[in-house]
Amino acid sequence: MRLIIGTLGSSGRGPLGCAASIALLLAAGAGCSGSSQEGPSDGGPHGGSTGAAGTSSAHAGTTGTAGAAATAGTTGHAGTTGTAGATGTAGTTGTAGTTGTGGAAGAALADLGKACAANTDCTGGTTCLLGSGKSFFGTDGPPNGYCSKSCSADTDCGSGGICADISAVGSTTPMGTCFQTCTFGGAAGTAKCHGRTDVACLHDYSGATPDYCRPLCTQDSDCPGRKCNLADSLCADTAATGDPLGTHCVSDPDSGASSCASFCLAVGGASGGTTAAANFCSIPCVIGNLNACNAAGTGSLSSGGAHGVCAFSDMTAMQGDIGFCAQECDTAADCTDKTDTGVMCDTSVMSVINHGICSWG
After folding, report:
1. How close are the terminal C-alpha atoms of the chain, in Å?
2. What is this structure's pTM?
């Protein structure tokens, strides 16, 4: 089982790493091995045959002829002793059987990763992880539910799933749970993660873990009756505190921890440079979801907290893949991060989202 679902903020499970190229990786662990089988071992030592006994009887001598004085007959010679039989040869030792290999994954679980409100919404052996529940890390639930099943190895999740540990922080007992796999940068739209706008296809750039569909929220409206905990992008009773979207930030180079409620995003400089042009608090989101990030829509930016749109992403990302929230603006004055130089309001997307997005030259 692998540990691939970490928090996206600074609550202790490992932050979401975001470099200038906006690379994404949670955490990966070791896979699971197959069972072994013992082969036959019926070959044992066999005894050899017993040798034949030799002859041992003597022949009597002939009797002398009677005479005036009879002479006694000659005594016969003793018989020759038989030769002992040869010792039998030991049998050949049997050869040990070969170790068995793990079984192959079965057919894909059709409902794995689908939205649900009850177990009856999930078929094929899956059940519903509720948004109102505490299946994730002992505290949180996936927005709008997630059809899944318990597992101890990837093969338990069928050909289209992987097994991940989502046990509580500090727990010594793994809680294996199946997640649907996907292809980051591949087919877009409804073909990816059931077309959900609250589930993103995540990519492990190291290649240690397959791409998989990870549920995430960006705002409280994604979690009816609960809060969107931006520290791990899941629904919780209490949301993490921290700086909101758009605030300038500095992240720890090792842990990724920052003052952000979610995480600190570094945006690269001009001409693909690796030096960050800006570092600001962002939120993971699903590319193509225009209602994420507390988007203002046709409304005003002056009320309702920081507003944003899912605008930043890896260059290879497609609809349904993981993206990152950018703060909305009408002018540069609306952008919270004025610490990074060259701030401007990019209004080229205004025809799509009704506002611009904060950018840096």
Report:
1. 44
2. 0.72
